[in-house]
Amino acid sequence: MRNIIAILFVAVVFASCHSGEQQPSAKYEEKKATLEDMERDSPLKFLRVSASHHGNLLNQTVVEGEIANKATLVSYKSIQVQVSFLDKDNAVIEKQKETLDEIVKPGTSSDFKIKTSHVKGASSVTIDIIAAVADK
User: Fold this and answer.
1) Which residue range(s) make up the domain with 10?
2) Structural domains counted in the chain
3) Of 65, 61, 38, the residue nearest 51 (C-alpha)
4) How far is CA 63 from CA 71, 77, 118, in A?
5) E strands present in the chain
6) Could you tell me if 72 and 107 are in contact, meaning their C-beta atoms sit under 8 angstroms apart?
7) Are residues 30 and 56 in the same domain?
8) C-alpha closest to that of 50 among 118, 131, 129
9) HSE of 56 in the Cβ direction (CA atoms, 13 Å)?
10) Residue 113's closest CA among 98, 126, 128, 123?
11) CB atoms within 10 A of CB 127
12) What is the CATH classification number for the domain harbouring 62?
């Protein structure tokens, strides 16, 4: 009787040791692939920009900021931003597009600096991300 109990005990311990070493399930891999597809197809949902601006001695507007990538699997490159120059009533005077050539990896951020000629009558500047390419 003791031998049967000992054998059952060893079998239970052996079975429980192997249960923690399982490979990721197919559902997990499927969800991961779906998330990656969503991040590749919708980069604007996962990229955030914050920036400030000032003038310099060369009569240029300098926009300095940071782009943060909130995605978990996909890096982005060739990020296009639109710089909008606003007057004192917040009406758009001029828009300029710039492409940032840095790669922003998942969960990280990247600093940038854009220098452009001063736009007459502009009292403030806004910046928006308008496009990005998923890195392979």
Assistant:
1) 2-36
2) 2
3) 65
4) 25, 19, 11
5) 47-55, 60-69, 76-86, 92-100, 109-117, 124-134
6) yes
7) no
8) 129
9) 11
10) 98
11) 21
12) 2.60.40.1620
Six token digits for residue 128 = 């928006």
* Tens of pLDDT, residues 21-35: 456 677 777 676 688
Instruction: Give the integer Cα–Cα distance in Å for 27 and 33.
Output: 10
Residue closest to 68 by CA, chosen among 98, 52, 47, 40: 47
Q: Rounded distance, CA 104 to CA 75, Å?
A: 6
Placement of tokens 């601006």 in the chain:
53
User: 């991961």: which residue's tokens?
Assistant: 32
Digit-coded pLDDT (tens) for 67-119: 999 999 999 999 999 999 999 999 999 999 999 999 999 999 999 999 999 89
Could you tell me the two tokens for 90? 């917040």
